Automatic annotation (TrEMBL):
It holds the Pfam family Serpin. PANTHER family: ALPHA-1-ANTICHYMOTRYPSIN (PTHR11461:SF145), SERINE PROTEASE INHIBITOR, SERPIN (PTHR11461). The keyword Signal applies. This is Serpin domain-containing protein. The gene is LOC100413803. Belongs to the serpin family. Keywords: Signal. SUPFAM superfamilies: Serpins (SSF56574). Residues 50-412 form the Serpin domain.
């Protein structure tokens, strides 16, 4: 038999001057830090979110990048519930977790708290996050695993006849499409003939700009890849905007925050020409903190931002070994926490994400799939900001340190 585990996640919402809001208790901060990849890294490990970004960007330097750090990290955390021995250790350390007493429990509790908080009713924007298990009645899943998924990850369970692969595939894909408002369709292209379980984790985000762009002011303009290479894009524009702003002379980049209605914002990072690699190399939690602490409300006379819709589709299993997660893909994998037997290994980890930025606001979703198989005021000079060359975007909530989406836009017209 072959076990097929699928973890799907869809989310979005960025940081800036209010990128991370300080909480009154240090413990609460530490718990929340765990589930965004902003974890204290063991030994030479730095940060899961930015290490994964660099790995994704390195696979295709001239291509757009968009992914959900929360999606991938939560998927791996759920996978760790079924892992044992050194397989579990590699997953948790790969996430940047210091394996001290109580830290693993704190990790899962942090995700549990995130799920509860993100699903609270709110004004201003839409944000939903949840999990589901699709299990074949013929599979004897351990009660401890099911209980942990339900308690820690608030997972629903749906009986699924995997012997009817067409029906099972439709059941799972319809569920994902419904939960992501149609943003993620046909998440699974096929099911293995011996699949017995699919784990789905979804997240969806949609928000309007606090200060929207007027579509009548959108015009065609050049977006430069280099001094001589460019493409025509639809460029949105705003005038006379007061917003958090920073000119980082040390890293040769401009940082600007645009806020959504509600407690979410988007942080746009514009490196100077030929400085993208230097900025990418310094993407660290401490860099974001320095930006957050240094940003000031600045009057922007003119702001130009391309209208874009980009997507990413990645086979993450080729990248995770670079982050220290290797054993789970080999015959040494210990996933006995799922069924009680050590006869499973991960064969594929797929991540998909979509990010749409328009005059009205932002809409985004993402999904992560893990397939498990049997072994076998105007002052100073005028300020004009033009995002007319490659730039970065970080979407997060402003009341938690959760980085929901991260993106590099190298070509706004690239689907």
């Amino acid at each position: 038999m072959q076990l097929f585990l699928f973890l799907c996640l869809v989310l979005l919402s960025p940081p800036g001057a209010s990128l991370y809001r300080h909480h009154s208790r240090e413990v609460k901060n530490r718990v929340k830090d765990l589930h965004v990849g902003d974890m204290v890294a063991p030994s030479s490990r730095k940060d899961f979110t930015f290490d994964l970004y660099r790995a994704l960007a390195a696979t295709a330097p001239s291509q757009n990048v968009v992914f959900s750090p929360v999606s991938v990290s939560m998927s791996l955390a759920m996978l760790s519930l079924g892992a044992g021995s050194s397989t579990k250790t590699q997953i948790l350390e790969g996430l940047g977790l210091n394996l001290q007493e109580g830290s693993e429990e704190e990790l899962h509790r942090g995700f549990q708290q995130l799920l509860q908080e993100l699903n609270q009713p709110r004004d201003g924007f839409q944000l939903s996050l949840g999990n589901a298990l699709f299990t074949d009645p013929v599979m004897d899943v351990r009660d401890t695993f099911l209980s942990a998924m339900k308690t820690m990850y608030l997972s629903d369970t749906f009986p699924t006849n995997f012997r009817d692969s067409v029906g099972a595939l439709k059941q799972i894909n319809d569920y994902v499409a419904k939960q992501t408002k149609g943003k993620i369709v046909d998440l699974l292209k096929n099911l293995d003939s011996n699949a017995v379980m699919v784990m789905v984790n979804y997240i969806f985000f949609k928000a309007k700009w606090k200060t929207p762009f007027d579509p009548r002011d959108t015009f065609e303009s050049r977006f430069y890849f280099s001094k001589r290479k460019w493409v025509k894009v639809l460029m949105m524009s705003l005038e006379d905007l007061a917003t958090p702003y920073l000119r980082d002379k040390e890293l040769s980049c401009t940082v600007l925050e645009l806020r959504y209605t509600g407690n979410a914002s988007a942080l746009f990072i514009l490196p100077d020409r030929d400085k993208m690699e230097e900025v990418e190399a310094m993407l660290l939690p401490e860099t974001l903190k320095r930006w957050r602490d240094s940003m000031k409300i600045r009057w922007i006379d003119e702001l130009y931002l391309p209208k874009f819709s980009i997507s990413g589709d990645y086979n993450v299993e080729h990248l995770l070994p670079q982050l220290g997660i290797n054993e789970v893909f080999t015959s040494k994998a210990d996933l006995s926490g799922i069924t009680g037997a050590r006869n499973l290994q991960v064969s594929q980890v797929v991540h998909k994400a979509v990010l749409d930025v328009s005059e009205e606001g932002t809409e985004a979703s993402a999904a992560t799939g893990v397939q498990i198989t049997l072994l076998s005021a105007k002052m100073g000079p005028k300020t004009i900001v033009r995002f007319n060359m490659p730039f970065l975007v970080i979407v997060a909530r402003t009341d938690t340190p959760s980085i929901l989406f991260m993106s590099k836009v190298t070509n706004p017209k690239q689907a």
